Amino acid sequence: MNNQKKTKCYSVRLESLFSISEKAYKATAFDGSTAVIPKSQVFGQDFDVQKSDAYWISAWILEQKELQYSNKKVRWF
To answer: Alpha-carbon distance 60 to 71, whole Å?
Structure first.
């Protein structure tokens, strides 16, 4: 029985994602919106996306931020 809690994530296309500290990234979306995202809430790159970089970011953190994102592409980690 797998009782591990999974995290709902959205694939977010970003203009940039760069490290600003040991524990956080600064994410910039294509509309210019930015957010500081804890590294623990970024679950890696979505390599299916072409033409831009996209990252799997937890849904609950995105809902608290002003960052532009789409909730069309979901994955559980």
So the answer is: 11
Query: Of 30, 27, 34, 15, which is closest to residue 57 (Cα–Cα)?
Result: 27
Closest CA to 55 of 34, 35, 69: 69
Residue 35, φ and ψ in degrees, nearest 5:
-155, 150
How many of the other CB atoms lie within 10 Å of CB of 37? 23
Distance, CA of 5 to CA of 24 (rounded, Å): 22
Average pLDDT over residues 55-62: 98
pTM, full prediction: 0.92
CA 50, CA 62: separation in Å to the nearest integer? 22
> What number does CATH give the domain 8-68?
2.30.30
> Mapping DSSP to helix (H, G, I), strand (E, B) and coil, where does residue 21 land?
coil
Would you list the domain boundaries of the chain? 8-68
